[in-house]
Amino acid sequence: MKRLIFLILLAFVGIIMAGCQAIDNIDTVVPSDPTDEQPNETPQVDFRLFEHSFGFSSLIVTSRREITEGVYEVNSEIEFLDALMAPDAKIIEIKSDLNLGSIEVETMLSQAGKTLNDYRNVYRRHSRQPLMHPILKETGVGIVRIVLRNNLMIYSKTGHQIKHTAFLIDGSTNIVIRNLHFSELWEWDEITAGNYDRNDWDYFTVEKSNGVWFDHLTFDQAYDGIIDVKEDGRNLTLSWSKLNFKPNAFIEAQIDYLEENIWKYPYYQSFKDLDISREDMILYSSFQKKGFNLGNSTDGEGFESITFTFHHLEIYNLMDRMPRLRKGDVHVYHIILDNSDIHNLRLKHNTNLRITNQGIVSTEDGAVLMENSLYILVTTPIRNHQDSRIDSKYTGKYKVINSEMVLSNRTYFGSSDDQNSLWVHSNTHELIPFAFRNHETLPYSYQLQDVFYLRETFVTYPTGHQTIDDFNWLKINEN
């Protein structure tokens, strides 16, 4: 017994000695005296990164830094329209928020002794006027026309807001839209019972245009889509932007109106009959149903040339179409699609709410390449077919590389080519070998970082509209 106790004590002493030796091998860290003066310096961020479009638009878009003629600074809605009317306009700097609803603009023009018809070339009353939203019924909805224009840039140095209007870019080349906030172009869809098929309000529609760079934009909810592309829209980029589809005062105003007049609106009433609260209806309504429709009709012509790059985007609660593609080529990298609120509300109300939650939809031989991106609680990450069409010609192509998927019970990192990958389409149609239609390889340079650092990047280099001291928004480094 004594021998056993001795051996135990000897082992214990050995453990202590080993621990002491290990401690001796650790560098000693001496805490600094809090009374010592420390330099209070904020690390300087090099925003020259924002001078590059890093996408298809870089093949066409040129710098504006040296332009001295055709430069307009606008402080009002009429000044903005006047600048658009000027045939020599090359740069339009927006220096105040603009309310461009058709009733708003018509009232301002009338007070100035002018009419909408005077500006018909650049601005019109939208063909679909609001039916439901109490604010939009007072403001109306307009459409700004950038038609047959070349080398035009519209921007703000401080991220001003543009409300109550859609934009059409048609037959134009080398167009830049930078550092703006687009909002209040949505209303509840009672007429088509939540399909959002009546109003056709997209923030931007692009057709027959070559080289458009959308950069550092913030988008709130839209009735239809964010950017739609029709025939022969090519060399487009959306970069460093925030799609922020969360509750806001504009959504709340609509729901409050419906609550107060519920007897008029049976579709809205059907949700209340299921005991869905006002707060959950606000959240549900804030989700964006449609994102990007690239190629706007089945079997449409002129979609083969579509080339679009999406990079460095923060997207919250987009139900569908990131993007929806027919026939063209799309490159997606460094995006975060966070559908946490959609996922959680769907769990809460199960079948009582009709909720779509999907990302890429590639059809009709369209090709989508996504790299180094993050999907959070996206139920259906990929679809590659129009289910209503059996024919295989309606199948699209996709490839995912080094991207992360956060699910409710696990996190997955990998590529669509990996064995047992989770980056696969959810429908039953066959996988088509990936290849771009317009290029063998991407025709522009870009740099990739590990998706692990993407959130940190967006802290250092924010997305969406903003103010950056000493940054020249007109300087664009050409590829």
Outline of the structure:
The protein has 479 residues and is of the alpha/beta class. The chain is built from 9 helices and 24 strands.
Describe the structure.
Helix 5 (249-260) crosses helix 7 (278-286). Helix content is 19%, strand content 28%. The protein has a single domain, classed as Single-stranded right-handed beta-helix, Pectin lyase-like (Pectate Lyase C-like, 3 Solenoid), CATH 2.160.20.10. It is an alpha/beta fold and 479 residues long. The radius of gyration is 27 Å and the shape is globular. It has a 15-stranded mixed beta sheet that branches. Strands 4-5-8-10-12-14-16-18-21 form a 9-stranded mixed beta sheet. It has helices at residues 2-24, 77-85, 102-111, 136-139, 249-260, 266-272, 278-286, 340-349, 454-460; strands at residues 71-74, 91-94, 98-99, 123-125, 142-147, 150-155, 161-163, 165-170, 173-183, 204-207, 209-219, 227-229, 233-244, 292-294, 307-316, 324-326, 329-338, 358-363, 367-371, 374-376, 380-383, 397-401, 403-406, 411-414. It is built from 9 helices and 24 strands.
What brief labels describe this structure?
479 residues; alpha/beta; Pectate Lyase C-like; 15-stranded mixed sheet; 9-stranded mixed sheet; 9 helices; disordered N terminus
